[in-house]
Amino acid sequence: MSKIAYVNGAYLPQRYASVNIEDRGYQLGDGIYEVVHVHRGRFVDEERHLGRLERSLAEIRLPMPMPRASLRLVLLEVLRRNRITADGLVYMQVTRGVAPRDHAFPKKPVPVAMVVTAKRIAPYPKDIDATAISAVTYPDLRWARCDIKTVNLLPNVLARQAARDAGAAEAILYNEATGMVTECAATSFWIVDAEGVLRTRHLDHSILPGCTRGALMAELEAAGIDYTLGEFSLETMRNARETFLTSATSFVKPIVRIDGRDVADGKVGPVTRRLFEIFTRHVNASAGNAP
Predict the structure, then answer these.
(1) Which of these is catalytic: 107, 119, 126, 149?
(2) Is 149 a catalytic residue?
(3) Within the chain, which residues score under 70 in pLDDT?
(4) Which of 40, 138, 170, 204 is the most exposed place for a label (fewest CB within 10 A)?
(5) CA 261 – CA 268 distance, rounded (Å)
(6) Which InterPro entries does the record cross-reference, listed alphabetically (predicted)?
């Protein structure tokens, strides 16, 4: 069966779907994207993701392509047409639309352009040990507004490729001037430091407000589990008891090796294991809600 995409109001087989060569997303990276995890055919943290989409669009002075309720119907229809009833991902991208190439916004407003695609993914993991990965450190070369989920991802691409070249799965980014860790190339980053404190960086323009990160924090607070927000250095990270990442595509995933060296004993730690269980319950609860 052909994959079906939503492109500017039409549902089309992906092999026939296209965007105009003067779409500002293609020409200038002038756009925003969002990804939502689907579990058992239902969206996980949908409101968080749509809220972040709306915020990112506002930050670059773009309107929502349609009201949230209408957008949700489009997302559901893309799922239906692609027959995704188990686990999957829905990708949406909104750009400033089609206009003659010029760095400034079009003098005459043009309709925003929107694309939605979906794909199946492997079932939600049951065994956290099987998900453990290695990572490398890499300088954070991104722009000054990483809190906006823009389609400008070249620095992230280069970081992920550096990880792949080293036989690792993710790159942990750090500020070269300060030696402070920010986040990963495509995920949020956490540590359990040498004193046993669960830590992740505070939100500002330097990192993306991860939806899975936010959902996990809400679960931690509900469970009475303490965590600390703030900067930490590469040295603190290297001395950590545990390290892990979070994202809509990785959930809670342990990192057991960094730059070729084991994190602590090189095994999944007890805190990461517990948080994986907590987040698994959160995902299953989301799947229990009616679409």
Answers:
(1) 149
(2) yes
(3) 1, 288-291
(4) 204
(5) 14
(6) Aminotrans_IV, Aminotransferase-like, BCAT-like_C, BCAT-like_N, Class-IV_PLP-Dep_Aminotrnsfr
